[in-house]
């Protein structure tokens, strides 16, 4: 059995960032990841053909100057010079088969009457629907803004806590307001995984954990055997709940309360000359089979364009491909390559702050059990890294 100071289950940005803090502190750390690559929703698969290379973001696509904890890690990994700007192409609505600007769809008089509420209304204890309907007006919220909100976690967000959707955080002045990285966001995941003292094992689907004589023991169906004094679970809440059932039933039950949604993402790569659609950052289509189409036009390429359709779960391949061809205005024969991915995102509801306070109270006596992920302070990359940082701090006391 391979002995470690820390074993991290889940190799998305939450697990990677927690592992980063552990190895910085000199702890022997191992990450176990179920998929064949690390990154989770921070995934930029690469495609190459005839000497030409291209990458596509299958999940997250944008980082901001306010991602201070992430930026610290990026700097330590020597990745700051890999930060690149995103081209200024618009986020648009796709309605009646046409691309429309957001402003063109807003009812301006309703917006002007409502917008002063921005300066007086507080987000606390308000749902996204109740808060933003008052800020932009009920019709503007229902017909325009709500679809943009739904596109963020690829599910209906009416009941999400308003203060967890978009947070205002202190920004760094020396970094672009919004950016990505040369070779995509996953290059950051790869840089972290290369840190000295960190072992990363992929294709390790952890399905049970034992706690024996003060050590966590993990045996994977793939034959891996790992032990550690400290266990980090950086998997979706339902997986973490399942893994804790036999060893910490109270925490497992508490995690089991949360809900999450699967996002069925299909990326298509098309030669530039085969598509005439004008460059966009994303298309959002109200009441469609997809929540959003995120484009690679934000980092233009000489040869290819790429589009990731974030579909509602449960659709068959034919329905997905038909919609792709309708939206892009091309036949599937013009698609050179496709990539599929399922991402899991939390379904947050009012009362989440109370759930979180109870979680942290329960973990107070569990110094060697750390829980991180995108279902604590929020789902943005920086929320994940912040959670990992505070969990690391809790362990170190
Ligand atoms: C479509 C989309 C777009 C987004 N866009 C942005 C954006 O632009 N900016 C932003 O800040 N945020 C964005 N987000 C949110 C952000 O990307 C995610 O919340 C964040 O990457 C989640 O990281 P995580 O490590 O918590 O979870 P995940 O990335 O889901 O990682 C969990 C990992 O655990 C692994 N795992 C699961 N079960 C097991 C098991 N039993 N054994 C071993 N491993 C297991 C999974 O394979 C996965 O790799 C986006 C999310 C999505 C889905």
What does this molecule look like?
This protein has 397 residues and is α/β, with parallel strands linked by helices. Helices cover 30% and strands 26% of the residues. Strands 1, 2, 10, 11, 12, 13 and 19 form a seven-stranded mixed β-sheet that branches. Strand 15 and strand 16 (290-295) form a beta hairpin. Helix 5 packs across helix 6 and helix 9 runs antiparallel to helix 11 (352-363). The chain binds flavin-adenine dinucleotide (FAD).
Based on the model shown, name its key terms.
397 residues; alpha/beta; FAD/NAD(P)-binding domain; seven-stranded mixed beta sheet; 12 helices; 19 strands; 30% helix; 26% strand; globular; binds flavin-adenine dinucleotide
- What name does the CATH topology of the domain at 2-41 and 177-258 and 348-396 carry? FAD/NAD(P)-binding domain
| Heteromolecules bound | flavin-adenine dinucleotide
Detail the poorly predicted runs.
none
- CATH top-level class of the domain at 2-41 and 177-258 and 348-396: Alpha Beta
Strand content: 25-35%
Percent of residues in helices: 25-40%
The count of DSSP E runs of length 2 or more, i.e. the number of strands, is 19
Largest sheet: 7 strands, mixed
CATH architecture of the domain at 2-41 and 177-258 and 348-396: 3-Layer(bba) Sandwich
Which structural class is indicated by helix and strand composition? alpha/beta
Q: Average pLDDT, to the nearest integer?
A: 96
Name the CATH superfamily classification of the domain at 2-41 and 177-258 and 348-396: FAD/NAD(P)-binding domain
| Overall shape | globular
For the terminal residues, how far apart are their CA atoms? 28 Å
Put simply, the count of helices is 12
Radius of gyration of CA atoms, rounded to a whole number: 22 Å
Oligomer: single chain
